[in-house]
Amino acid sequence: MKAMILAAGKGERMRPLTLRTPKPLLPAGGKPLIVHHLERLKAAGFRELVINHAWLGDQIEAELGDGRSLGLSIEYSREHEPLETAGGIVHALPLLTQSNNTWFLVINGDIWCDFDPAQLTPPENADALLVMTENPEHHPAGDFCLHPDGTVTEDGAELLTFTGISLLNRNLFEDLTPGTRKLAPILREAMSRKRVKGLHHNGLWMDIGTPERLQVLDRILREDRAES
Fold first, then answer.
1. Is residue 103 over pLDDT 70?
2. Single pTM value for the model
3. Which of 32, 52, 215, 227 gives a 20 to 30 Å CA spacing to 23?
4. Are the C-beta atoms of 31 and 14 separated by less than 8 Å?
């Protein structure tokens, strides 16, 4: 199974840091954000990766190359303009599902999480498996409801936050034409057909959406490294 890291956003909320550096290459704990993802994916057994990019994407390719120095194989899905999450996935589908395996892992490039991707296995009778977490202070309303049987719905008594980590099936995107498109409406439509499952992650998760959150993550990672 292949994995995709979504790295095409302009990082406008992170400016001025992202005026000359793409957000995935901003450092935290002594290494670029995207390298944390690559290391965790490799440890989980993923070797074939796809990274989409648009804004300053040449810097990402120059930094990571084909991945061989990291023990990985990296392909790039180049976008002239960011296509949003679903649009980027549709654009990259020829790279993601070249074999008979229709499942692939997707991770938002602007998060940090200690979740182990090796825990993810394709669910039965579903087209998506979402990793959910407790709602952070900056997103108290949450996104979706995770029910005791593992089914995810749009509404419910207790909403959790979608981490940006998921297993997705090609079926979700088969009938979509290329273009700019967000993932959430596609997931909601699949939820209406009870085709989305989820699991609850109780560990550390951060949405690195502001320079302040990047500073917090950097401090956490440096403190952890000093203690180990």
1. yes
2. 0.94
3. 227
4. no
